[in-house]
Amino acid sequence: MAMMQRINQTTRKLPAWVLYLIAPLPAAWWFYQGLTGGLGPEPINALERLYGEFALQLLVFGLAITPLRKFLKLDLIRFRRAIGLIAFSYVFLHLSVWLFLDVQILAQIWADILKRPYVTIGMLAFTLLVPLAMTSNNWSLRRLGPVRWRRLHKLTYAAVTLGGVHFLMIVKGFQWEPIIYLGIIGLLLLLRVVPAPGRSPVRKAA
Predict the structure, then answer these.
(1) pLDDT for the residue 9
(2) Which has more pLDDT, 72 or 187?
(3) pLDDT greater than 60 at residue 124
(4) CB 181 within 8 A of CB 164
(5) Residue 112 burial (CB count, 10 A)
(6) Which run of H or of E encompasses 98?
(7) What is the pTM of this model?
(8) Nearest alpha-carbon partner for 56 in 182, 163, 190, 192
(9) CB burial string 174-200: b at 16+ within 10 A, e below
């Protein structure tokens, strides 16, 4: 417990805007590698996957913030908005690489969305994330009110789950990595409804 208090005291001194400064670095590095041959013989596919997987990792980490505070007393809530917006930016980069570097043809893009289930699911996840990114600001919180704002942002659960399913569907053959992601997502969602240690669930009166 004392260690968590020290960690929380340290993180409170770190401004959230630092994350926005660091966030573009992986994207820029991977793009540079793609231009210079560092991503192998299929740089577009590699770049698309790197952006997408990093976005999923950030979304999962954002989903983990509440359980971490609930069970380990690790308080990273002040960084959750930044992590969510950065995750959305990487989802957007992932989508942009697919649209403008991979497919390029508008008719083919629409055909893929309709005919390829993994593309359909990926686009649905992106669509759910758009209103979350647009309302991740204090003005939207005041305009919607805390209750409606929290209700809207529960779309995160569906979006992250769909992102995990999208990843599972695009890998070739049986691979443990996407299964592990989905397992972690399921566990984090379950932990949100499990009572915190030392607290018994509230019983409704008969």
Answers:
(1) 84
(2) 187
(3) yes
(4) yes
(5) 18
(6) none
(7) 0.91
(8) 163
(9) eeeebeebbeebeebeebeeeeeeeee
- Long-range contacts from 4-9, C-beta under 8 angstroms, 24+ separation: 4/72, 4/73, 4/74, 5/73, 7/74, 8/73, 8/74, 8/75
Written as one letter, the residue type at 205 is: A
Kindly report the average pLDDT of the chain as a whole number. 91
Domain spans, the chain: 36-191
For residue 197, give the nearest of 64, 77, 70, 68 by alpha carbon.
70
Residue whose entry in the numeric block shows the structure tokens 């758009």: 130
pLDDT higher than 80, residue 202: no
Closest-CA residue to 55 (of 149, 166, 154, 134): 166
State the DSSP H helix or E strand holding residue 23, giving kind and residue range, or none if neither.
none
Question: How remote is the C-alpha of 201 from its chain's centroid?
Answer: 29
197, 71 Cβ separation under 8 angstroms: yes
Per-residue pLDDT band for 190 (boundaries 50, 70, 90) equals very high
Alpha helices, H only, the chain:
2-12, 17-22, 24-35, 43-72, 80-96, 106-115, 117-134, 138-144, 146-153, 155-170, 176-191
Q: Are 159 and 62 in contact (CB under 8 A)?
A: no
Give 183's contacts (C-beta < 8 A, 6+ positions apart): none
* Cα–Cα dist 160/119, whole Å: 15
